[in-house]
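does this look right to u?? adenosine-5'-diphosphate version
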Amino acid sequence: MVRVPTKLVTWEEIVEWSMGLARVIKESSFRPDVVVAVSRGGYVPARLMCDFLLVDNLVSLQSQHWTEAAKVAEKAIIKFPYKLDLSGQRVLLVDDIVDTGDTLMLARDFILSEWRPAELKIAALQWISPVAKIKPDFYYIEVKEWIWFQYPWTRHEDTVQFIKRILLEERGKEWTYEEIRARFEEGYGIFVGDAYFRLALESLVELGILERRGGTYVAKTV
Ligand code: ADP
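got this back:
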């Protein structure tokens, strides 16, 4: 049965962690001119860094993992590379979490070679120290054991994926709402609330993965 150690992160925690991260940066001598958000996970933390550090300049760069069809190996790519002149600027590159560090290292290398800032430092709310290939210059929480952080900005898409994994284990089975919810809580150890849960089921029906039969749900077999 699918089981993933997961922690539900609230908006209040995001504000608290971001304020804590901004304090770590303030206590250093680094004063950024430009914040660069690593898209998509770094968007909210980057916007909050601008707020707490009173920085006006915010841009983003999308760096993501990409799986080649039929290949197990994954590599990170810059999705929409573009030109920007950051000469003379001190850049703060912001992400939500440093897990493997792959997407972040790629974003850092791209910015240093293409946008040529005077200086670049990396900030992340969380750093998974045992698995990360890089240590951010600034972080608020060191995570010592891998876990999936269910951030508020991916609550819907994570819920869709999590339910999908449960349903695909037993295709053709007829579930009530309560049964899917109970299995979800058992597998992930969290509950996202009824509004998110119902929205995810609605999306799974729209995606053609789930079929609604009266009061029950059935995962499609094709
Ligand atoms: P990096 O470690 O460079 O951020 P990853 O590919 O490991 O690269 O992660 C990319 C993005 O995926 C993260 O910025 C985050 O948004 C999401 N992510 C990765 N690991 C986790 C995790 N353990 N919990 C929540 N989100 C994660």
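Residues 41, 65, 95-104, 148-149 surround adenosine-5'-diphosphate (CB under 6 Å). idk if thats expected tbh
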